[in-house]
Structures are given as C-alpha cells and as structure tokens.
Amino acid sequence: MGGVDLSDKSLELYDPDIRSNKMWKRVLFNLLLRVISSLETAQTKLSKSIDDKSNHHAFTAGISSSNSDWTGDTLVFPVVIYSEGTGYNPSTGIFTAPSAGTYVFYVSVQSASRKYIYLDIVMNGSSKVRALAYYGGGSRVHINQTGTNLVILHLQTGDRVWVKRYKGIGYVSGDIPITTFSGFKLN
Hints:
Oligomer: single chain
Helix content: 10-25%
Structural class: alpha+beta
Number of strands: 10
Shape: rod-shaped
Largest sheet: 5 strands, antiparallel
Number of domains: 2
Subcellular location: Secreted
CATH architecture of the largest domain: Sandwich
Strand order of the largest sheet: 2-1-10-5-8
Number of helices: 2
Organism: Magallana gigas
C-alpha cells in the first residue's frame, strides 16, 4: 500500500498491546483506504476541471462572396470555419463572452478593387483597433489591399465584440474566405 507498513511489528512500536487488537488494525486500515479514495477523487476532479473544455471558446468566421458596394455598419461573417465553445453568432456577427477572461480578436479585410475600407474591432460599442485596406489611386491596374489588426481584451460575461465599418466601401472575399474575423479565450 504505497509504503505504509501496517504489520504488527510496526504497530507495536506505538503500543505493545495493539498487536492483540485486530479490530484497531482493521479500523486504521479502512480509514487509510477512505483517505486514499478521497485523495484520488479530488485528483480526478481537479484533472477534469483543468481539462474541462466548457471554458474554451474560439472561432473563425468569414464571408464567402465579395461586395464591392457594401457600406453597412456591422460586418457579419456568416461562414463559420471553426467554432469551439459558445459565443459567436454567425447571424449577427457578434461575439458575446460566455465567461469572463482575456480574449484575443483578429480581423482581416481585403478592399474591393481600387477602393478602401476601414474596419474596427468594437467592444460594447467602443472601437478598440482599426484595420485599414487602402488603395491610394492613380493606377489603372485592379489592385486590392489587405488590412489586418489584432486586439487583446479582458471581457466580463456578456460583453460583446464585433467588427464594424468606420468608413470606406466594399470588400473582397470568396468561396474560401479572404475577409475573416477570429477570436479565442486565453484564460
């Protein structure tokens, strides 16, 4: 039993009469078994809580077609590429924090040909970072620019994060999304 000596010889060190008391030895043995069982149960629960995926939240979503004339407010990313846990709503484009913690969000946008677009990552109505896909003009060549940005935010349960247009017009995407929005919980 893991180095615990329950022989009569070890017990007689404490009390020479204990050898004759088999019941005491049995009580002590059962008590040790219960302690070991409790420790194993606690270890299992701790391991399970560490591995519990209910607190893992991550997503990547994109857009499957271009819209060179888009001038909306919230950019909705309806194509879910990856999702673990809960939080991202592909119908609204909004991530709602299911639990408090530190999260990372990333946006990538490609401007429509010879146009520019600014997109903000917004938390509860407040812009946090801006991605800019800017075309400077002057070229007859169809040029698309890509803008990206990343932000780390501490969210409380129920906080909302989304992507909105600051200014500009249009974006490019395709069957394999080019314009995307991602987020995941660090802890």
